[in-house]
Write a structure and sequence with these properties.
Elements lengths: L22 H26 L11 H6 L4 H21 L1 H22 L3 H24 L1 H5 L1
Helix pairs in contact: 1-3, 1-5, 3-4, 4-5
Amino acid sequence: MGTSTTVGTHGLPWARGESAARPSYQAFQILRLGFTAAPILAGADKFLHLLTNWDMYVAPAVARMLPFSAHTFMLLVGVIEIAAGVLVFVKPRVGGLVVGLWLCGIILNLLLAQNWYDIALRDLGLALGAFSLSRLATDFDADRVAS
């Protein structure tokens, strides 16, 4: 017969440390790590410009609506991205949704720019991953275990 999983307190297998070997828990941890690190690194690079000149990604239509420069906007974006990465680490269920929605906003900006379709497609994949993290967190988030 197949293997069975012993279920711990309140039907939660991780309550007794049994989930670490489960592929779904490993996927949750991989996504949590990735969606913590990536926004923090991208956000920090808005100040450092080591990876790219982020200002060029602001759609002209968006830049015209801003009450300040595209560069100032991207600095604000950097702060928000760092906060989103920290939120993913602390509360992955909520953080995954925030990052997924943030990426949808980035996709919209890139489509408005009518230039960066390849990056928009990549960000769609990232958004789906962030939403998947949020869904997995409903089973594995430490806050849920405590409640």
